[in-house]
Each structure stands twice: as C-alpha cells, then as structure tokens.
Amino acid sequence: MRLIGANGEQVGIIPVKEAVERAREANLDLVEVSPTSRPPVCRIMDFGKYKYELAKKAKQARKKQHVVQLKEMRYRPKIDEHDFQFKTRHVREFLMQGSKVKTFVMFSGREMAHTEYGYKLLERVTQELSNISTVEQNAKLEGRNLSMILNPRPQAAKPKQLKRKEDAQDKDKSLGGQALQEDGHRQN
Prior knowledge:
The protein has 188 residues and is of the alpha/beta class. The chain contains five helices and eight strands, in the order ββαββαβαβαββα.
C-alpha cells in the first residue's frame, strides 16, 4: 500500500504490517483514503478529528444553502373580482418573501368543457405580477387542475421581518400617543 505520513509527507509503498506499526507508534489511526487506486492509499491520522472536520464542513455548506419554499394559491374559473384581487395580493406577498408560487385553477363538473376561462385567468395573474415574477412553468392541464409556477425576480424579494417591523412602526405613529379602548374607540 502507498502510505502518507501524519504530517502529509509521502512515505512510499510499504507492507500493511509496517504501516500499522508506524500508526501505533504515532498513537494515530491508519485510514484508507483511496481504496480503488492501485496500490491503495492509506494515511496516518487521528480519525476522530478527521470525522469532526468533515462534519464541520458539511454544517457550513448547509448553512450557506438557501431553501426556496413552494406556496400554492387556488383559484376557481368563475372567481369574483374582489376574490381575485385578494388572492393575487397574497401571491404577491409570497413572491416578495422569496418563495415560488404554484397557482392553479380547479375545475369541477361541466367547467371542464370551458378550460379557456382558466387559461385566461392564469394569464391575467401573470400580467398582474409580471413586474415581480417570471413564469417557471407555463399553464398546464393536469386532471381537473390547470397549474402554473411563478418564480420571484431576485430584485423583487425583500426580507419578511423588515416589512413587519415597518408595519409596527407605522401603527405606533398612527395612534399619536392616544390609547385605544378594547372596543376600538379612541380614549382622550
């Protein structure tokens, strides 16, 4: 086997018994680094410390990873204007938080004969949100659902906590130092 010493120096090709003896003399472990190469490569090292370093690197890699959530919003083909605006406002908030959004139109019964209403509805959603989103997957009919996936644009996403903090400050300013009673009337 090819042996690498404790300090990283190349020892050379030596028998297994001799490598084990050198590892015992150094009070370290003999670890097989590359078993598929010919001859196999082994290294003298502290195996516990090696495993700890690998776990530490893996933890750092996970910390830098950004997980994108997939939110969903369901529409109906005969949706009222107010309901459409309400749901689209929620989709806008999801996109601003940096989440992907799957919008879908559910058809029931005879509505399946007029899927063009669903396509028009999803096209309208796309137009309303075109300044903050891009279409990842175009409208596609899957069974009784017509679905589309929207991605947030990078410059459109803003942190969720910052918005909440701004809202709280605005509410404090609107009270103007006056307290509200439980029934909602201002108290002098």
